[in-house]
Amino acid sequence: MKKIYGFTLGCLGMAAALSGCTPQLTTNVPNVIRVENVDAGQQGRIFINSNETVEVTPDMAEIVYGIRTEDTDASACQQKNTETLNKVLAFLKDQGFEEKSIKTTGFSLDPRYDWSGNRQQLIGYEMNTQVTVTDVPIDQVGGLLSRTVESGANEIQSVIYFSSTYDEAYQEALQKAVELAKGKAQALALASGQELGKVVKVEEYNDSQSGRYTGSGISRNTKSMAQESAGVMDVAEMGVMPGQMKVTANISVEFEIYEKQ
User: Fold this and answer.
1) Which helix (H) or strand (E) segment is 85 a member of?
2) HSE of 204 in the Cβ direction (CA atoms, 13 Å)?
3) Cys-Cys with 58: which of 6, 161, 215, 260 at CB 3.0–4.6 Å?
Protein backbone atom coordinates (compact mmCIF):
# COMPACT_ATOMS: atom_id res chain seq x y z
CA MET A 1 0.00 0.00 0.00
CA LYS A 2 1.26 3.48 -0.87
CA LYS A 3 1.73 5.81 2.01
CA ILE A 4 1.44 9.61 2.19
CA TYR A 5 3.24 11.24 5.08
CA GLY A 6 2.11 14.06 7.34
CA PHE A 7 4.55 16.04 9.46
CA THR A 8 4.17 18.19 12.55
CA LEU A 9 6.87 20.75 13.27
CA GLY A 10 7.30 22.97 16.36
CA CYS A 11 9.49 26.03 16.70
CA LEU A 12 11.19 27.64 19.62
CA GLY A 13 9.95 31.21 20.32
CA MET A 14 12.23 34.11 21.11
CA ALA A 15 11.57 35.91 24.44
CA ALA A 16 10.41 39.56 24.17
CA ALA A 17 12.98 41.98 25.54
CA LEU A 18 14.44 45.41 24.89
CA SER A 19 17.55 45.67 22.74
CA GLY A 20 19.65 48.53 21.53
CA CYS A 21 20.46 46.77 18.24
CA THR A 22 19.68 47.85 14.69
CA PRO A 23 16.15 46.78 13.55
CA GLN A 24 16.33 43.17 12.43
CA LEU A 25 14.32 40.01 11.87
CA THR A 26 14.60 37.16 14.38
CA THR A 27 14.09 33.62 13.08
CA ASN A 28 13.64 30.31 14.88
CA VAL A 29 14.73 26.71 14.49
CA PRO A 30 12.62 23.55 14.81
CA ASN A 31 12.80 21.49 17.97
CA VAL A 32 10.23 18.73 17.29
CA ILE A 33 9.40 16.69 14.17
CA ARG A 34 6.70 14.01 14.24
CA VAL A 35 6.06 11.72 11.24
CA GLU A 36 2.69 9.96 10.88
CA ASN A 37 1.57 7.49 8.21
CA VAL A 38 -1.61 8.28 6.29
CA ASP A 39 -3.47 5.81 4.07
CA ALA A 40 -2.99 6.44 0.37
CA GLY A 41 -6.70 7.12 -0.11
CA GLN A 42 -6.57 10.11 2.21
CA GLN A 43 -5.20 13.62 1.66
CA GLY A 44 -1.77 14.19 3.19
CA ARG A 45 -1.08 17.21 5.40
CA ILE A 46 1.89 19.08 6.82
CA PHE A 47 1.34 21.18 9.96
CA ILE A 48 3.86 23.95 10.69
CA ASN A 49 4.13 26.11 13.82
CA SER A 50 6.07 29.27 13.02
CA ASN A 51 6.90 32.61 14.60
CA GLU A 52 8.78 35.71 13.51
CA THR A 53 9.87 38.83 15.39
CA VAL A 54 10.33 42.31 13.94
CA GLU A 55 12.16 44.93 16.02
CA VAL A 56 10.98 48.54 16.04
CA THR A 57 12.12 51.67 17.83
CA PRO A 58 9.48 53.25 20.12
CA ASP A 59 8.58 56.77 19.05
CA MET A 60 5.92 57.71 21.63
CA ALA A 61 5.52 57.59 25.41
CA GLU A 62 2.95 57.80 28.21
CA ILE A 63 3.92 59.54 31.46
CA VAL A 64 2.13 59.22 34.79
CA TYR A 65 2.85 62.03 37.28
CA GLY A 66 1.96 62.17 40.96
CA ILE A 67 1.01 65.27 42.97
CA ARG A 68 1.24 64.86 46.76
CA THR A 69 0.36 67.54 49.30
CA GLU A 70 0.21 67.57 53.10
CA ASP A 71 -1.46 69.85 55.66
CA THR A 72 -2.84 69.69 59.17
CA ASP A 73 -6.28 70.66 57.81
CA ALA A 74 -8.10 68.44 55.30
CA SER A 75 -9.64 71.33 53.40
CA ALA A 76 -6.33 73.17 53.14
CA CYS A 77 -4.60 69.99 51.98
CA GLN A 78 -7.16 69.55 49.21
CA GLN A 79 -6.87 73.20 48.20
CA LYS A 80 -3.08 72.94 47.88
CA ASN A 81 -3.40 69.83 45.76
CA THR A 82 -5.99 71.44 43.48
CA GLU A 83 -3.83 74.53 42.96
CA THR A 84 -0.78 72.42 42.08
CA LEU A 85 -2.86 70.17 39.81
CA ASN A 86 -4.17 73.19 37.90
CA LYS A 87 -0.60 74.45 37.40
CA VAL A 88 0.52 71.08 36.04
CA LEU A 89 -2.47 70.82 33.69
CA ALA A 90 -1.91 74.37 32.43
CA PHE A 91 1.77 73.60 31.82
CA LEU A 92 0.96 70.47 29.82
CA LYS A 93 -1.55 72.37 27.68
CA ASP A 94 1.03 75.11 27.09
CA GLN A 95 3.34 72.40 25.75
CA GLY A 96 0.80 71.63 23.03
CA PHE A 97 -0.93 68.57 24.50
CA GLU A 98 -4.65 68.39 23.78
CA GLU A 99 -7.20 67.65 26.49
CA LYS A 100 -7.82 64.19 25.03
CA SER A 101 -4.17 63.34 25.81
CA ILE A 102 -4.38 64.49 29.46
CA LYS A 103 -6.42 62.88 32.19
CA THR A 104 -6.48 62.87 35.98
CA THR A 105 -6.63 59.43 37.53
CA GLY A 106 -6.68 58.37 41.15
CA PHE A 107 -7.66 60.90 43.81
CA SER A 108 -7.11 60.09 47.48
CA LEU A 109 -7.24 62.07 50.74
CA ASP A 110 -5.97 60.18 53.77
CA PRO A 111 -5.36 61.05 57.43
CA ARG A 112 -1.83 60.96 58.81
CA TYR A 113 -1.20 59.64 62.31
CA ASP A 114 1.60 59.71 64.82
CA TRP A 115 1.86 56.16 66.14
CA SER A 116 4.55 56.85 68.71
CA GLY A 117 3.74 56.19 72.36
CA ASN A 118 0.75 54.18 73.38
CA ARG A 119 -1.90 56.02 71.38
CA GLN A 120 -2.81 57.07 67.87
CA GLN A 121 -2.75 60.82 67.29
CA LEU A 122 -4.04 62.58 64.14
CA ILE A 123 -1.37 64.98 62.87
CA GLY A 124 -2.71 65.97 59.45
CA TYR A 125 -3.80 64.86 56.01
CA GLU A 126 -2.19 63.77 52.76
CA MET A 127 -3.74 64.04 49.29
CA ASN A 128 -2.47 62.29 46.17
CA THR A 129 -3.52 62.88 42.58
CA GLN A 130 -2.31 61.19 39.39
CA VAL A 131 -2.00 62.93 36.02
CA THR A 132 -1.48 60.83 32.88
CA VAL A 133 -0.31 62.38 29.61
CA THR A 134 -0.22 60.25 26.46
CA ASP A 135 1.07 60.65 22.91
CA VAL A 136 4.34 62.23 24.04
CA PRO A 137 6.95 62.21 21.23
CA ILE A 138 10.12 60.44 22.36
CA ASP A 139 12.31 63.45 21.67
CA GLN A 140 10.22 65.52 24.12
CA VAL A 141 10.14 63.07 27.03
CA GLY A 142 13.39 64.07 28.75
CA GLY A 143 12.68 67.79 28.76
CA LEU A 144 9.04 67.29 29.72
CA LEU A 145 9.97 65.17 32.74
CA SER A 146 12.34 67.87 33.93
CA ARG A 147 10.15 70.92 33.39
CA THR A 148 7.00 69.39 34.87
CA VAL A 149 8.83 69.23 38.22
CA GLU A 150 9.04 73.01 38.17
CA SER A 151 5.30 73.30 37.57
CA GLY A 152 4.55 71.35 40.76
CA ALA A 153 4.50 67.61 40.04
CA ASN A 154 6.56 65.93 42.76
CA GLU A 155 6.44 62.32 41.55
CA ILE A 156 7.05 60.53 38.25
CA GLN A 157 5.27 57.23 38.76
CA SER A 158 5.91 55.62 35.38
CA VAL A 159 7.03 56.16 31.81
CA ILE A 160 5.83 53.67 29.18
CA TYR A 161 7.14 53.55 25.61
CA PHE A 162 5.20 52.41 22.55
CA SER A 163 5.43 52.55 18.77
CA SER A 164 2.91 54.30 16.53
CA THR A 165 3.79 51.75 13.83
CA TYR A 166 3.12 48.66 15.98
CA ASP A 167 0.26 47.41 13.78
CA GLU A 168 2.35 47.68 10.61
CA ALA A 169 5.24 45.87 12.31
CA TYR A 170 2.90 43.10 13.50
CA GLN A 171 1.53 42.61 9.99
CA GLU A 172 5.09 42.36 8.68
CA ALA A 173 5.87 39.73 11.33
CA LEU A 174 2.76 37.76 10.27
CA GLN A 175 3.83 37.80 6.63
CA LYS A 176 7.36 36.71 7.50
CA ALA A 177 6.00 33.89 9.68
CA VAL A 178 3.88 32.59 6.79
CA GLU A 179 6.87 32.74 4.43
CA LEU A 180 9.00 30.84 6.93
CA ALA A 181 6.29 28.19 7.38
CA LYS A 182 6.00 27.72 3.61
CA GLY A 183 9.76 27.29 3.24
CA LYS A 184 9.87 24.65 5.98
CA ALA A 185 6.90 22.80 4.50
CA GLN A 186 8.48 22.81 1.04
CA ALA A 187 11.73 21.38 2.39
CA LEU A 188 9.94 18.64 4.32
CA ALA A 189 7.77 17.70 1.36
CA LEU A 190 10.75 17.41 -1.00
CA ALA A 191 12.79 15.45 1.54
CA SER A 192 9.97 12.89 1.90
CA GLY A 193 9.36 12.54 -1.83
CA GLN A 194 6.11 14.50 -1.79
CA GLU A 195 4.84 17.59 -3.56
CA LEU A 196 3.61 20.57 -1.57
CA GLY A 197 0.05 21.67 -2.24
CA LYS A 198 -2.05 24.67 -1.26
CA VAL A 199 -2.53 26.17 2.19
CA VAL A 200 -5.53 24.57 3.89
CA LYS A 201 -5.67 26.58 7.13
CA VAL A 202 -3.80 29.35 8.94
CA GLU A 203 -4.24 30.04 12.69
CA GLU A 204 -2.89 32.96 14.68
CA TYR A 205 -1.82 32.54 18.32
CA ASN A 206 -1.07 34.77 21.30
CA ASP A 207 -1.94 38.17 19.82
CA SER A 208 -2.51 39.53 23.33
CA GLN A 209 -1.07 42.96 22.44
CA SER A 210 1.17 42.66 25.49
CA GLY A 211 4.13 43.64 23.35
CA ARG A 212 2.56 46.94 22.32
CA TYR A 213 3.95 48.73 25.39
CA THR A 214 7.24 48.50 27.26
CA GLY A 215 8.23 50.05 30.57
CA SER A 216 11.18 52.42 30.81
CA GLY A 217 12.16 51.89 34.43
CA ILE A 218 12.07 55.68 34.98
CA SER A 219 10.52 56.85 38.26
CA ARG A 220 11.14 59.58 40.82
CA ASN A 221 9.70 59.92 44.28
CA THR A 222 8.99 63.12 46.18
CA LYS A 223 12.31 63.21 48.03
CA SER A 224 14.55 62.61 45.03
CA MET A 225 12.69 65.10 42.89
CA ALA A 226 12.91 67.74 45.58
CA GLN A 227 16.68 67.22 45.64
CA GLU A 228 16.86 67.45 41.86
CA SER A 229 14.90 70.67 41.68
CA ALA A 230 17.16 72.10 44.40
CA GLY A 231 20.20 71.47 42.19
CA VAL A 232 21.54 68.20 43.62
CA MET A 233 20.94 66.69 40.19
CA ASP A 234 20.50 68.59 36.95
CA VAL A 235 17.11 67.30 35.80
CA ALA A 236 17.46 69.18 32.52
CA GLU A 237 19.96 66.50 31.53
CA MET A 238 17.60 63.59 32.20
CA GLY A 239 18.27 61.22 29.28
CA VAL A 240 15.72 58.98 27.60
CA MET A 241 16.89 55.86 25.75
CA PRO A 242 13.89 53.76 24.65
CA GLY A 243 15.99 51.06 22.99
CA GLN A 244 13.97 48.74 20.76
CA MET A 245 10.87 46.63 21.25
CA LYS A 246 10.12 43.24 19.70
CA VAL A 247 6.87 42.59 17.85
CA THR A 248 6.24 38.84 17.53
CA ALA A 249 3.68 36.90 15.49
CA ASN A 250 2.92 33.21 16.22
CA ILE A 251 1.02 31.13 13.67
CA SER A 252 0.19 27.58 12.62
CA VAL A 253 -0.18 26.70 8.92
CA GLU A 254 -1.62 23.53 7.41
CA PHE A 255 -0.55 22.51 3.86
CA GLU A 256 -1.69 19.76 1.50
CA ILE A 257 0.93 17.28 0.24
CA TYR A 258 0.74 14.83 -2.67
CA GLU A 259 2.74 11.80 -3.71
CA LYS A 260 4.93 12.62 -6.70
CA GLN A 261 3.65 11.14 -9.92
Assistant:
1) helix 74-94
2) 10
3) 161
